[in-house]
């Protein structure tokens, strides 16, 4: 897998995107950012990078695009790997745009899962923290960043004003397609999210990879952790059923661990591995289809 080292910039949006999320949804437990600090961010190129990223994302994530990607990836015929091979594969995606916190993907996964473990949550929740971003290996299959990371949202019905940079949906052909541009679009009221196609990215992909192995709340967390328009803004409650509502309590519980646990202290990967090997073996088969 050495040849993939030169793909290290594939996920260069990652830190900018996460900082943008923290700007939109600040940690309630942290002191409010100084105006000066905030202005530095707003004035920086990073805002332009995130805007450009969402412009592409909102332009190209159409209903037909999602159907095409599902057809291409959900057969799970790209690779068979153990979870450890997948983690190692994902780790070839190192984002070197942030010299202050130079964490690789495994370290983000471990910081998330260790914070969940420290709070005494069930073991499947810890494992979910450890796995939740493995779907980003889509980047290594050559997918563009806007089809891997970023906020996710339903396609096939009207795009909500509560999605980040909603103005860019003017560029999406589904916006002028009468089949897709109404409140319910191709769906029915409270039909349940399982029937709703989400914009394509690492969340939906990993859900399909893991769906036979993990308990239902874990699968909800994996599938909807980037669906900020719902778990933060409640913009699509009209498509959800009772079970979705219940399960989203777990998605909400998970979010702070994903967003606010990044710290410059690197977890001791070698020391933690025995615990995670045993945990993964409890729920997952030796080889998994990706
Ligand atoms: Fe993610
Ligand atoms: Fe994450």
Automatic annotation (TrEMBL):
**UniProt superkingdom:** Bacteria
Cofactor dependency: Fe cation
Q: Show the GO cellular component annotation of the record.
A: cytoplasm
Gene Ontology molecular function, alphabetical: inositol oxygenase activity; iron ion binding
In terms of InterPro entries, this protein maps to: Inositol_oxygenase
A GO term (biological process) for this protein?
Answer: inositol catabolic process
User: Where does the UniProt annotation locate this protein?
Assistant: Cytoplasm
Assigned keywords, A-Z: Cytoplasm, Iron, Metal-binding, Oxidoreductase
Q: What is this protein called in UniProt?
A: Inositol oxygenase
Organism of origin is Croceivirga radicis
């Amino acid at each position: 897998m050495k040849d993939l080292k030169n793909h290290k910039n594939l996920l260069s949006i990652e830190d900018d995107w996460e900082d943008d999320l923290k700007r939109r949804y600040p940690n309630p437990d942290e002191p409010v950012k100084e105006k000066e600090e905030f202005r530095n961010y707003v004035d920086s190129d990073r805002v332009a990078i995130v805007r450009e990223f969402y412009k592409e994302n909102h332009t190209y994530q159409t209903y037909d695009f999602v159907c095409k990607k599902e057809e291409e990836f959900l057969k799970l015929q790209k690779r068979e790997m153990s979870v450890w091979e997948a983690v190692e594969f994902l780790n070839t995606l190192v984002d070197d745009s942030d010299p202050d916190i130079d964490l690789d993907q495994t370290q983000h996964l471990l910081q998330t899962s260790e914070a969940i473990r420290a709070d005494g949550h069930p073991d499947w929740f810890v494992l979910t923290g450890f796995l939740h971003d493995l779907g980003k290996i889509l980047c290594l299959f050559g997918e563009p960043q806007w089809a891997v990371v970023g906020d996710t949202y339903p396609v096939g019905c009207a795009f909500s004003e509560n999605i980040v940079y909603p103005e860019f949906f003017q560029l999406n052909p589904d916006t002028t397609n009468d089949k897709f541009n109404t409140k319910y679009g191709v769906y029915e009221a409270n039909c349940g999210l399982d029937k709703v196609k989400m914009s394509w990215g690492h969340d939906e992909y990993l859900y399909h990879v893991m769906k036979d192995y993990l308990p239902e709340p874990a699968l909800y967390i994996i599938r909807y952790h980037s669906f900020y328009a719902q778990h933060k803004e409640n913009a699509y409650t009209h498509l959800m059923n009772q079970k979705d509502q219940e399960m989203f309590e777990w998605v909400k519980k998970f979010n702070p661990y994903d967003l606010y646990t990044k710290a410059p202290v690197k977890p001791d990967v070698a020391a933690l591995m025995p615990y995670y090997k045993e945990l993964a073996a409890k729920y997952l088969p030796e080889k998994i289809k990706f």
